[in-house]
């Protein structure tokens, strides 16, 4: 057993006592490479021991915490950014969740078994009244039957506005590609490829644009003007009741149709401009 003097000198020199095979104590310096017979006893070579001795405790502690926090893998920069979402992202996610919940709650005519399933046939008639095919056919027929130049001008621009609406809505649906609500039944009247998508509501854009067009270019009595506004509102609301669209699809559709009318006014075709264009083509 070593004397107290030997133990104090070993503590000052930074050594650690170790028992040898013959029962004697040997001191190993922490700042020097251990003797070869001790390395063999620990099952490692001198090179590995030097690497272990040169590795600082702080470095081992830092690497251990980083690997344990990521499960042994370093997270990509994109995933790290997702851990700190922006206020705009949180607001959009919350709005989307509210939109999905509200659309599902308001889809009371989505099928015959719904709470308002008996009103579904009436809502489908409203749906047909806002479809593009009846409006295109009606505008073309009125243009053909109109005798006055003013009537032909109005019907021609209404026909142009309907075609413009179909193009803009179709392009936007193809770009956004938002799926229709899960509770929707695909039994709609005369659908096309882009009609499988939901955003925006073509019925809402058409109803808002046609309502503004009729109120601006037709002389209507006050009850008829109220009836036109009421029809446009019911057409948009029926899209949610039937489960065809989300609430935001209809709201954006109304907004888009309202401002789409200004585009129609900018592209207005007068008989003089139309005749001159036809003359240039000939």
Strand content: under 5%
Overall mean pLDDT: 76
Gyration radius from CA atoms, angstroms: 39 Å
For the largest beta-sheet, the strand count, sense and barrel status come to: 2 strands, antiparallel
How many helices does DSSP assign? 13
Tell how many strands the DSSP assignment holds.
2
Distance between the termini: 120 Å
Order of helices and strands: HEEHHHHHHHHHHHH
Task: Quickly give the structural class.
Answer: mainly alpha
Low-pLDDT regions = 4-16, 25-31, 56-72, 77-81
The backbone outline, from C-alpha atoms, is: globular
**In which range does the helix fraction lie?**
55-70%
Give the neighbour order of strands across the main sheet: 1-2
């Amino acid at each position: 057993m070593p004397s107290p003097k030997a133990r104090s000198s070993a503590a000052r020199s930074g050594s650690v006592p170790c028992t040898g095979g013959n029962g004697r104590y040997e001191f190993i310096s922490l700042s020097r490479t251990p003797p070869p017979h001790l390395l063999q006893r620990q099952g490692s070579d001198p090179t590995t021991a030097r690497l272990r001795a040169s590795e600082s405790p702080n470095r081992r502690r830092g690497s251990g915490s980083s690997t344990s926090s990521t499960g042994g893998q370093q997270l990509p920069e994109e995933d790290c950014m997702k851990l700190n979402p922006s206020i705009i992202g949180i607001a959009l996610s919350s709005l989307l969740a509210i939109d999905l919940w509200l659309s599902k709650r308001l889809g009371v005519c989505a099928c015959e078994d719904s709470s308002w399933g008996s009103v579904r046939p009436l809502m489908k008639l409203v749906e047909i009244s806002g479809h593009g095919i009846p409006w295109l056919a009606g505008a073309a027929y009125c243009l053909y039957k109109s005798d006055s130049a003013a009537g032909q001008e109005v019907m021609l621009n209404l026909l142009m506005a309907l075609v413009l609406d179909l193009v803009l809505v179709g392009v936007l649906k193809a770009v956004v590609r938002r799926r229709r609500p899960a509770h929707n039944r695909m039994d709609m009247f005369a659908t096309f490829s882009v009609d499988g998508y939901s955003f925006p509501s073509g019925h809402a854009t058409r109803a808002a644009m046609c309502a503004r067009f009729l109120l601006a270019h037709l002389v209507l009595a006050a009850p008829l003007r109220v009836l036109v506004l009421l029809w446009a509102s019911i057409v948009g609301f029926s899209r949610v009741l039937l489960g065809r669209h989300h609430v935001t699809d209809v709201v954006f559709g109304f907004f888009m149709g309202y401002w789409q009318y200004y585009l129609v006014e900018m592209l207005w075709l007068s008989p003089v401009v139309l005749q001159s264009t036809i003359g240039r083509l000939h």
